[in-house]
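Exam revision sheet. Question 4 asks you to relate a sequence to its structure. Input first:
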Amino acid sequence: MIAIVVCVLSILAPGAWYYSLSTNSDVLVLDETALTVVLDRLPEDEKDAVAISQETIINATGVPKRAFNKYFKQKNVSKTEFQWLLLYNVTGNPDLSVFIVKRITSDEGFRISDDYIIGMVGIEYYNAHFKKKAFDSNTNIASYSFSYNYLTDKIELTMWVKLGYDRSVISKHVVTTAQEVKVSLEQAIEIGRTNGLSGTISGRPVVAGGALCWRVVWKHTPTKQDYDAHTIYGFDIHCTTGEVVRTHRYVLPKPPSIKATQITPLIDDLGVDDLEDGAVIQLRVMNSSKETFSLTKSFGKMVVKKGGKTENTDITLWIDRELIVHALESGDVISYLKENAEEGQVGVELHKNVVILKKKGYMSLYEKLK
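Answer key, structure tokens:
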């Protein structure tokens, strides 16, 4: 099938007169609407904050400093205890926010997370069952070891609290009450049997909905019939009340969607580094969740955005989902596509005059695939 693509692209063979045509390459496309800069100390005044925000934008977009004011107009600036927020109007794009935020230290992160947990379970319960593990200043996650002994059972879990740069709790995986354990694993397995589980059953502790539970599951390799019937294979049993708080069924998972972060290396390996600024490719993923991506060369950077065809699209590429995944895994995208692409897995459509396409640098794509 690659041969068909090459055949279509071969019409881009050099012509003597195409250099006179304009490609309208003065194009800026952003793949983000917010940029974040993390600093140990916030700038004191607005002038310093503006300078930091502009440097951040230049580094992220490739727009030269001399052209900055052509594309970016400062709209608003505000400051709180923990951040500066600078808002810019951007030519041909949505507004861009630049957040300059103060880093959360380990001591500060644990102090906030400790207070949050203690507020739910109390200081005595916290001291008895929680032990600090680590605070990740990149993700702002405070992690804890949790332990609870009951009869011969020992519950050991990792729990965590995630903070926002405004020092609020934005997500968590912890017990939300000072919960006692009154149900043993053996009793939980018996409750599972009572509710329909059979054969060999295993169990382990989990946190489900802020509660300690035993997750008891049927040790079984699912069949197609199990997935079709959504057969029950497990339950989450509340460790205090013995209540079934969640039922688990076999459900055939959908393949994960192709992400923009996967498209960027694929396109780079296909030889688009040589495309001129302003080149626009639409990529459609076949046999998947109908993902469509727009790829635009903007100030030397290939910007990948999820979305459909634009009026400036030069070509459309269709590539099969599994072919993309396996080509990326192979480490040699071009060779893999040439050796493995079958009929119907790859396609191409040209939307612009071939002369324009040649001037924009699409010959490199042809050279790679031939």
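Marking note for examiners. Residues 14-24 have pLDDT under 50 and may be disordered.
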